[in-house]
Design goal:
The complex is a heterotrimer of chains A (406), B (267) and C (311).
Chain A lengths: L1 H16 L14 H8 L3 E6 L4 H19 L2 E6 L2 H13 L9 E4 L1 H9 L12 H6 L5 H4 E2 L2 E2 L4 E8 L1 E5 L10 H10 L12 H15 L1 H6 L4 H19 L13 H9 L5 E4 L4 H7 L7 E4 L5 E9 L7 H11 L2 H8 L17 H8 L10 H6 L1 E2 L4 H16 L2
Helix pairs in contact in A: 2-14, 3-14, 9-11, 11-18, 15-16
Chain B lengths: L3 H26 L1 E3 L9 E2 L2 H9 L1 H34 L5 H9 L6 H14 L6 H27 L2 H8 L4 H30 L2 H7 L6 H10 L3 H29 L9
Antiparallel strand pairs in B: 1-2
Helix pairs in contact in B: 1-11, 2-11, 3-6, 3-8, 5-9, 6-8, 6-9, 7-8, 8-11, 10-11
Chain C lengths: L16 H37 L14 H8 L3 H32 L5 H7 L1 H4 L2 H12 L4 H8 L19 H36 L4 H30 L2 H6 L7 H10 L4 H39 L1
Classes of the chains: A alpha/beta (406), B mainly alpha (267), C mainly alpha (311).
Chain lengths: 406, 267, 311
Amino acid sequence: MKKPIIFLAAVLSVVLFTACARPTATVAPNNFADALRTARGKTVTFYGWGGSTAVNSWFDNVVAPALQAEHGITLRRVPMNIDEILNKLTTEKQANKLRGDIDVIWINGENFYTAKTQGLLYGPFASRVENFTRLIDPQAPDTNFDFGVPIEGMSVPLGRAQLVFVSDTARLPVFPASAQALLAAARANPGQFTYAAPPDFTGSAFVRNIIYEIVGFDAINNAPAEKEAIYNVIRPALDFLNELEKYLWEEGRTYPADTPTLSRMFAEGQLLWTMSYTPLYAARKIANNEFPPTAQTFLFERGNIGNTHYVAMPFNAPAKDAALVLIHQLISVAMQAEKLDVNNWGDLPVLDLARLTAEERTRLQGVDSGRGVLPVDELLRRRLPEVHARKIAIIEELWQEHVLRR
Amino acid sequence: MRFPRLRAIIFYSFLFATSAPVLSLVVLTVSAAWRYPSLLPTVFSWRYLVSVLAQDRRTAEALINSTLIAALTTALTLLLAVPAAKALGLYQFRGRQAVKLLVLLPLMVPGITVTMGMHLTLIHLGLAGSIAGVVVVHTVFTLPYATRVLINVFELVGEKYEKQAAMLGASPRMILTDVTLPMIMPGLLSAAIMSFIVSFSQYITTFFIGGGRILTVPLLLVPHLQSGEIQVAAVYSLLFIMSTLASIALMEGIVRKFYKGAYFLQT
Amino acid sequence: MQEKSPLLKSCGKNTSCAGRLYATWRPYILVAPLVTFMGLTFVLALGSAVLQSLGFVPGAAANVLTLRFYREVLLESDFLTSLSYTIYIALVATLLSNLLGVMVAFVMLSMGQRPKWQRLLYQVPIVIPHLVVIVLVFHLFSQTGVASRLAYWLGCITHPNQFPLLVFDRLGIGIVLVYLYKQVPFATMIVAGTLENISARFKEVAYNLGAGRLQLCTQILLPLLMPTILSVFLITFAFTFGAFEVPFLIGTPAWNTLPVKAFFYYMRPDLTYRASSMVINVLITVISLGFAIAYGHILALIQRQTEGGER
């Protein structure tokens, strides 16, 4: 009986661990001028989340034509979730495949931490991207840290997201602009508030924002990334969420599975508010007639969590020169201005206004951000940092144990 | 007959429960706005139908991929299942029960287990993210259905007609095309239809093995379902049902055309 | 048709050696492509799942064969919740759909041959994929769905939030509704088919022997129907137990079925979670197979009994 099992194991390990042919790695250019020269005529492949038509359209209809016209490079975009991308890269690393399929990936937070510590990324390369050295503030916190993880030139910021709340001013005249105000509003309108259950990205950010409100950023930031320690620190916040729960939709017995569901419930009048990680989200929804024209974005008085998303290069990127040019293009003033346009994406720019020429500054500030949203400078002024990537999953687990399944 | 009225009520409400939801789906596809608590859409429009069917290039791509994958899966399934079903239906041989068990096992093992187990291997073979890889995985799930049906057919038909034809001097090829195939055609057709439907409905297998690169109709539908864009999801659902029915009709039509006499086994 | 001759038996006078050899090996040649295919895909996949569940995950930091991940998963606080939730949904959906299916099949039998359009109409759900049924259930039974609107017009509720939560709910009512829509017609179709065959054969005999209607049902039809009902039960149970899409898309976030749990582990960027994911996969498979084996025994038992009864 034992022999077939051993044979099976042997066959399995051969199939699982053998790699196909191994071409050698490509040589990366030493500086940006070299990259521009050798990249012309090449194809650069971008892998990233493809779940938003607005985001896809910015890549396909704005970036791709510009990249072709200005640098003669073809952009190929493959929609894929970041966990699958990292899974693919991990497998290729294991198989020692030095010439992969992906040139540029879209990444941040926990995934960046994983990719960096597991050696899936190429770099440091940021200093070789011309627009990075020219337009981005080297001292800005998000130039140096991504969810508390040191970046060290392994990725370049692409855009800034921020948690925002949206309510209908016709039905809720006063914004609940703090945790306590939210509790009061929920008590006054039972069943008409809720949030998406973490690990939903936005719901998770909301829970962290409540933690900041109740125990403060420093307390959670200084806590070690261990479950026990974090539980002790955030316990008052979890108690608050349990108090709030009594007045939530379905009395908190269950929560919407994701933020799109939350927004649909808001649009259909079931809820008095919704939230989003795209700060200009409300403008697009109002323009589509999905949200009432009286919908308005607001933040907590003490600010909302924001985070930055980045682009990076895999260790086995086949066209590193074209990748450098694409990244350069992505953070150019023109592309960042188009990206801010709510008709394209509505994502906040990463550029340092102080470093732009007067003309460039006008270009960026002249973008119409639509109805029902907050001005960019107010968003940036009331922007709170993220905690370390490793704490996110721990907080989500604690929420599930102590709030959801209590 | 006792309680004839009760029985009629049970039966017709059953018919209503199976068919009325599909009708409501059709209404949903032409509603632009359906504000609560209105019972009928407040605004009718072709907007969603047009934007999904005519304006989104990915719809055509997904439909072509879905059909191609389902057709290839059906072909591969029949190619593997017909000879095996003949052996399993007609001959006694050592290991017969084991083979039968092996082919029916995927009905008992969760799809997600098989898919995740095959994922890594297919990545190494370079088949992940390709149509070929998706077809291979779908075939694992269509084989049990097809083989089961075909075993029954071979048991029913037996070998005697083939033997007679051989005695009368027919070549093996003639036996295949003029005797075996027409006789098993009804079973072949239902096996093909079942394989097609099973492949056409796959979501999580295509999601994993296709790696986001192979777009099929279910892969387009699910994100809209998740984001609550129910009208768009309804349009894809309708497209789904229509193309399944069309494919079934097409397969039946082809069989009818080429094997007019193939139905003598059916009562 | 019994061709069990050993390979090296001396060849007869009339048949050539090659011919006899071919006859012996023919079944194996015919099943070879299928067995090879299943071996390289299905068997390999199961093997890979088992190996990975034992900590043998390519690409992960440590590759030591260990039962650690089984211990971790089984000791997790919500594993039992997930397991019982999965069994609960599969059992409720399967029992209800079989019960309703058998009932409708008997009703159909007693109403005589139905016209073809009616038989086609009730089989429509069988070709409709689960994903589409989810759209239907969502549209009809969500808090702002058709049923809720009807309740509003009938004056039962004044706000959508007052409508009971039937989708994304903790009891999995939405999930069960999806399975019922698919499985009741399936059960009806299969049971009705067998029922027609049986009743054609036994009705006359039974009446001649003076059996009443109730006796016909409980003494003759039901026992003869049992194997069919059991196999429908097994197929639908195994399917709902291992199904991913439906609980993933309209299940409550409060707890997950085992397949959904396995999916979430699998999608974690840290590869060591692959092992935990595969542990769950292996456990689901073992449980499903356990049910299949139990089914085999029950079936044999019933067949022995009915044969005994006929004698």
